[in-house]
Structures
1.
Amino acid sequence: MKQVVTCQEMKFCDSYTIERMGVPSCVLMERAALKVVEELEKRFAGEYKKQKILCVCGSGNNGGDGVAIARILHQHGCQSTIYLAGNPDHRTEEMQRQCQIAANYQVPVVNNLHSEEYTTIVDAIFGVGLTREIKGEYRDLIAELNEMSGWKVAVDLPSGVDGDTGAELGIAFHADLTVTFAFRKAGLCLYPGRKLAGQVIVADVGIYREDGAEPKLFSMEKSDLRELPEKEADGNKGTFGKILAVAGSSGMCGAAFLSASGAFATGVGMVKIVTPEENRIPLQTMLPEAMISCTDDLEKDFDWCDVLVIGPGIGMTVKAADKVQFFLKKAKQEKKPVVLDADGLNLLAENPKWKNYLDSHVILTPHMGEMSRLTGKSIRELKSDRAGAARALAAETGAVCVLKDACTVTAAPDGRAWISLSGNAGMATAGSGDVLSGVLAGMQAMYPETPVEEKDTGFYAALGVLLHGAGGDQAAVRKGMAGMKAGDIACGVAEILKEQQNF
Ligand SMILES: NC(=O)C1=CN([C@@H]2O[C@H](COP(=O)(O)OP(=O)(O)OC[C@H]3O[C@@H](n4cnc5c(N)ncnc54)[C@H](OP(=O)(O)O)[C@@H]3O)[C@@H](O)[C@H]2O)[C@@H](O)CC1
Ligand SMILES: Nc1ncnc2c1ncn2[C@@H]1O[C@H](COP(=O)(O)OP(=O)(O)O)[C@@H](O)[C@H]1O
Ligand SMILES: [K+]
């Protein structure tokens, strides 16, 4: 789990390091430039003298980094050239100083982008100081750079990417590599910024957070799977958790199957599916390991389980609504963990009073459409600030919100949020959300002894999202992004856990 920052937080860290700790700004800039040069030279290997590098620099400190990069490369014997964009009168003090040093070293400056063919283009136009949509000359410049051939490297952020939301502000540089400083910016984790950045390297340049400052935003990467617990050698099917999946309706038994498969993949002890009678035979045929309950003795089913999944494929009938309400109400009374998914969420949107049944024991797993129904906001608005949207729903309901998308954000009611960096486009296939609901329930069941109020439900939900994405990546390796189906993601989850737990 790594800290992720917004632009404002990054600026705060900069000024804390410079003003409070006394590290001169030019020292930080030199370190930042050296880190970028280090990455460039790794790629150039022994052939760096053959490289022709164009550093395109804006008038702020991001431009200052670019000028320093060109100068260091020049000193190392590379053919590096500076292109200065923007109004010289708007240059920051650091940028002016870098221009002066580069002039002292006689680093070439060009006024024409096409005076040569370049092997590498370094984008140092805007970093965390981008504040508005890019228009006019800057827009034309970035469009031209995108048309040019050569390896594209962005300094701190691809110019045009909103460092907070990942949105493209009018236009953005298309990078193959982004070297970002101190912390990954949120906009490098969220699409389209994540795609525009290419590979991301986070470089330590000596800028840190103030001691005691509490980070609120994190990225979850595959290495974080080591946080998953070991399976107790002396456990039994009772201690490994009992999941009740309230799922499936007429013609929708697949959702119940996939949700239960997701839960089994995490290693839970038992799964029981509460579903209409007509689903009994297909479900028992497909998944004989699961128990099937088609009676109306919901009380008994509730008492049996440790964790509930409510909603996959359940439909929007009155009967489904009664079931969902019954289980939500009981779970609130007895503080049993709940994953509320799919039509469970659509029913919640139609019955806003049910929000009273929500609290920290509940994980809501809306995709963008369901989130739009729940909040009344348009998908466009939600996509423009995914972390903000997830946090707002978590704060309003007191539940954990897993806002599913190509980059899923999990938010806890206390304001913490986690962005998952696992998963791939092959997961955009019917039923993969159903698998996630089971995986999330499985994660909550891994600690049946811990009372729900002592569990870090948000963190384990985020870990479940990461695991589901890693399972999807595994499925893509085996079946290909086009060929993989939701069931392959459940198999992938099991394989990832096998690797992780050495069995
Ligand atoms: N602090 C430090 O010592 C360190 C900082 N570091 C580096 O500094 C970067 C931050 O530098 P920064 O704060 O100067 O902002 P930066 O990203 O260069 O952009 C500001 C310029 O862009 C302009 N501008 C903005 N939007 C615009 C638009 N749409 N269209 C046109 N113009 C627009 C804006 O103009 P204005 O809004 O003032 O008119 C201003 O001139 C950071 O990302 C990292 O690379 C590292 O070296 C480590 C040490
Ligand atoms: N492009 C993508 N990259 C990574 N993960 C994705 C992508 N598209 C979808 N997913 C994941 O797949 C799942 C889809 O869930 P959902 O939309 O509920 O599907 P369904 O309703 O068919 O089960 C979510 O976990 C989502 O994060
Ligand atoms: K940049």
Note: The pocket of NPW (ligand 1) is lined by residues 14, 18, 25, 28-29, 32, 58-63, 65, 90, 92, 126-134, 138, 155-156, 181, 205 (CB under 6 Å).
2.
Amino acid sequence: MTLTCASLIEKYTDIWRDATVHPFLQQCQAGTIQLSQFNTWLVQDYLFAVECARMLARLVGVAPSDHLDILLSGLVSIKDELQWFQRNAATRNLDLNTQPQPTCREYCHLMASAGQQPYAVQAVAIWAIEAAYNQAWRKHSPMPEPYTEFGDRWGNSNFSAYVDELARQADAAIAVADKTQHQAAEAFFLDIARLERDFWQMAYQG
Ligand SMILES: Cc1ncc(C[n+]2csc(CCO)c2C)c(N)n1
């Protein structure tokens, strides 16, 4: 089977479901999530997003020029998103100057390590990270207040279109990559799916 972003989701249906369906999200939707659980997620996801911005910036350094437009639009969104996290944390009196928990730290290390990979592998990895979030929030939408803005941020159709573009670019890069790169891309996909599940679980444990 030709390796594509869609084929990875198809091959690993159960793993992908566990990455995108979790009691944390279900209880946000039911309005029963505890404040400490939600706040843990918010702070740790901010720390994660900072490292994701660095990963995306490294990708800009190695991407073919016709892939830059999409990647740069992602960087602009992250700029906005980091400020949004900061505003949200201030409203909730949360300190963003916090240590990452082990799962967050492991995920950040994985993103840093992607920098040593060829462009095609990095392109699959960034797609998987963004696609997991897009699908997770979409699968649990609509979110009631006060979580509506969170669901809208990552479940909205503009963000879905961005994720589709990332998949298209990753597919184009992987189509001309060798077997070693295919294997590395698949390994990153699996690590990302596992860490997405663990990240929800980390927040759930408060
Ligand atoms: C655990 C976790 N996984 C994926 C994302 C998705 N994501 C990472 S940075 C960013 C900003 C705009 O592209 C988005 C949406 C996340 N936030 N947290």
Note: The CA atoms of residues 5 and 168 lie 8 Å apart.
